[in-house]
Amino acid sequence: MSGKMIEIELAYGSSGMTVQLPAAATTVITPRPRNAAPDPLAAIRAAIEGPVAGPRLRDLVRPGQRVAISVCDVTRPQPRPVMLQAIMEVLDGIVRPQDVVVLIATGTHRSSTAAERREMLGDDMLDAWRVVDQDARDRTTLVDLGRTGDVPVLLAREWVEADLRITTGFVEPHFFAGFSGGPKMVAPGLAGLETTLALHNARRIGDPRATWGVIEGNPVHDAVRAITTATRVDFSVDVLLDDRQRITRAFAGETLAMHAAACAAARREAMRPVEAPFDIVVTTNSGYPLDQNLYQAVKGMSAAAEVVKTGGTIICAAECRDGLPDHGSYGQLLHEGRSSADLLERIAASPITIPDQWQVQIQARVQAKADVRLRCDGLADDEVRAAHLTPIDDVGATV
Questions:
Q1: Is the dihedral angle over the CA atoms 52, 76, 366, 344 positive or is it negative?
Q2: Residues contacting residue 288 through CB under 8 Å, at least 6 positions apart
Q3: What is the residue-averaged pLDDT of the chain?
Q4: Whole-angstrom Cα distance, residue 372 to residue 280?
Q5: What are the φ/ψ torsions at residue 344 (nearest 5 degrees)?
Q6: Are 113 and 82 in contact (CB under 8 A)?
Q7: CB contact at 8 A, 234 and 256
Q8: Is residue 1 scored above 70 in pLDDT?
Q9: Gyration radius of the chain's alpha carbons
Q10: I need a surface site. Which of 3, 19, 279, 321 has the fewest CB within 10 A?
Q11: What is the mean pLDDT of residues 190-214?
């Protein structure tokens, strides 16, 4: 490759990846510069004491209450310990530790391992409070709350039966729900499988408004907000993160108002306009834990698809240390289709929603627009090809 080269550091796994690209032909798109909060705990305390809307958390807490707190699962880089510490400071001395449960909002993902829980939450939280992974497939742990619109609503029993319900999360653009955090920490986070399948059916996922940065009019997020409103959340805390997963801002209060404010800030900071689509787009899935499997890496491909020319090329670098993964239906569904076009036809023709089909649907839709090539360490080349993707060894050389 002739001409001047530049080095670009890609977020890949835990250590990153440096690639060389031709300077004259390369545009680097990054979030707007943001400063990490100098004292993350102080930032969260301030948000809890000065909510966007609604009462302060301390005004909601009463002795004898059973408290449920939802947190993101292991696929998300939420700074859980510091967020829970700020909440613990409010609850301490009013609510008994044995009356508090931390619910890991797995959605349809796998449960965490003991080692992952310790890494996610820290020793202090594990010693102080009970921690439970939500299991969307175990009906004995769920309560049927009827329907909200066309969606059957089943939520975690420990959440429904709690006197005080608190969500915690982080807000970033989401590839079909508009933004993460807020009401998503109830559904699909703490929801039963039937609820998630209805929220992620082919009609909703195929709607052009089910995309990055869109909330109002997004059929996925509209339904998520409706469920949260119908089933009650008492208080919510969300943060924004920089590209090193450090807290930049914190928001708290009534769920929907708090989330709207956090989404507006995330839209300004994390979404950037481009003048025209590109022939080649190099993307990642923001490193570990977000790129731990191919299922999650579809999000990075989807972001790239927003700015690639029709018929162009997407090069995705994602470590995929957890493979496809082995759990869930994503891999099985991929292997059942002869091509991305065949997969889209199968999903459109199916009268039922199969777990993980939404990820396959979005991946196939991306591949209908562009050629997708994958650089990863966690999958063999034949496994990448079986997922209808082209394996590569070197991002720079491929460009």
A1: negative
A2: 13, 14, 319, 321
A3: 95
A4: 10
A5: -60, -40
A6: no
A7: no
A8: no
A9: 21
A10: 3
A11: 96
